[in-house]
Specification:
Blueprint (H helix, E strand, L loop, with lengths): L2 H10 L3 H16 L13 H11 L4 H12 L10 H15 L14 H9 L23 H8 L10
Helix pairs in contact: 1-3, 2-3, 2-4
């Protein structure tokens, strides 16, 4: 870039940050196909944008507006009416009904699951790997059983 071009632009746009933002916006517009207001003279888009700003062939207000529009996330300033939002949410609930049970809902018993529970496995035999256990009939282990299970029966001499 030519130093003369930047110095000429600073006279038109005193804030260098604003100058950089506006010239970058104009360079993006030029690369997107906007018509040039000056001859290119074999210069690249950022230099052409600076030359256009220095020559005042583009409006600074127009560049500011296009810069703001380019960085906005919402193009409409109006908010949706609450009734419209409620209608949208109702449509989502109706569409989700056929998707299956929701988180935290109790599973529904069907004739197929009830028959599978009664018969064990699908082939009529016992289900492999699991058996019913009566929790009340189970004994709680005492400390002696735990020591025997982990190999510390107390018969060995302690280490000194």
């Amino acid at each position: 870039m030519a130093r003369v071009t930047v110095e000429d632009c600073v006279l038109k746009v005193p804030n260098r940050f604003d100058l950089v933002m506006m010239s970058a916006q104009r360079a993006r517009e030029v690369s997107a196909g906007a018509t040039l207001t000056l001859d290119r003279d074999n210069d690249k888009n950022p230099v052409v944008a600076l030359r256009e700003i220095a020559a005042e062939t583009v409006t600074l207000d127009g560049l500011k507006e296009s810069l703001i529009r380019g960085h906005q996330r919402h193009s409409s300033l109006e908010e949706e009416e609450p009734e419209e939002v409620i209608e949208l949410m109702a449509g989502e609930r109706e569409g989700a009904e056929g998707l299956g049970p929701t988180f935290g809902a109790e599973p529904e018993d069907t004739a197929e699951t009830a028959q599978a529970d009664d018969n064990g496995a699908d082939d009529g035999g016992e289900a492999e790997g699991f058996e019913d256990v009566d929790l009340e009939a189970m004994e709680e282990p005492d400390d002696g059983m735990l020591r025997d299970a982990i190999g510390d029966g107390g018969d060995e001499e302690p280490l000194s």
